[in-house]
Amino acid sequence: xxxxxxxxxxxxxxxxxxxxxxxxKSLTLPIFLEYLLTAILVLILILGVIY
Amino acid sequence: MVWQNWFLPHKDTHKKAHLISWEGLVIxxxxxxxxxxxxxxxxxxxxxxxxxxxxxDQKKLIELTNIERQKxxxxxxxxxxxxxxxxxxxxxxxxxxNYWAHFAPSGKTPWDFILNAGYKFTFAGENLAKxxxxxxxxxxxxxxxxxxxxxxxxxxxxxxxxxxxxxxxNGQKTILVVQEFGTASNIAAKPxxxxxxxxxxxxxxxxxxxxxxxxxxxxxxxxxxxxxxPYAVSKVAGLSVIFLIAILLTVDVWVLKRRGVFRFTSHNxxxxxxxxLAAGSLFMAxxxxxx
Lengths: 51, 291
Known about the structure:
Domain SCP (chain B): 63-179
Keywords (chain B): Membrane, Transmembrane, Transmembrane helix
Mean pLDDT of chain A: 91
InterPro entries (chain B): CAP_dom (IPR014044), CAP_sf (IPR035940)
CATH class of the largest domain in chain B: Alpha Beta
Structural class of chain B: alpha/beta
Organism (chain B): Candidatus Daviesbacteria bacterium RIFCSPHIGHO2_01_FULL_40_11
CATH architecture of the largest domain in chain B: 3-Layer(aba) Sandwich
Strand content of chain B: 15-25%
Transmembrane segments (chain B): 25-45, 236-256, 268-290
Oligomer: heterodimer
């Protein structure tokens, strides 16, 4: 259940980041990496406790 | 000062502090992967060092099960020695064959253990739990899952058998709870067993050629020795990293505001929102699992 909520949160976060920065024409590789790596970090942290 | 660039935005370029830039995030990810790999290596080299110390009582589990049944107006189930033996044999088999499932990789079924213990049944059911630290938490988790709750509150059952056993599963000290329910066979009916919400009719050949499982059942009681709890270590480390990143993101916003600088970058508020969700999830997450 926790993993499901967190996965939905991550999906919203990444989609929002993509749309927002694309619209602002500010989407660069380092910016995209910051979002992607934050999402990966959060997922790794929770998986370390659940499994 | 170079060290300041790790914590504060760069003085001239206003670039994010290293610890909240993508380079810093890569470092955190690698450290956490290293931590998990380290746990796996320790579990392999020194089985039993890692694990969870719990205080689960077999009698308390039966008592809590009956409390839940009585709440729904159902008759209580009575402890049955043969079902206790079947549960203990099942737990021991999970440790010896190193699996976490209702059906063993070697093909043993849940009813094999019950029949082998000498309990002839019309209806039976099995609930499993691992890595919980208290009896209350186990029953609460079963009650929160529809299939396990249906088993626990099944009006057909008359008897119960529970085993709480400690052993090594995948290199980690694990506390297993096996709960077997049953209704002794006193009518000529085809026996069936409820496993994970599925009603399985016991095949005829399993009844005629009753399996003989060569298992010596020794009840092991979980101890409360302090071990290295990998879940607690991961939780504390994870919350610490989230807390550090949250502070550095706040400092980043504050410093840029003071400098009156606008910078094209990812949004700290969005990161903070996801980190808050992660912190909440980490806080609530538990290694306890049911099957």
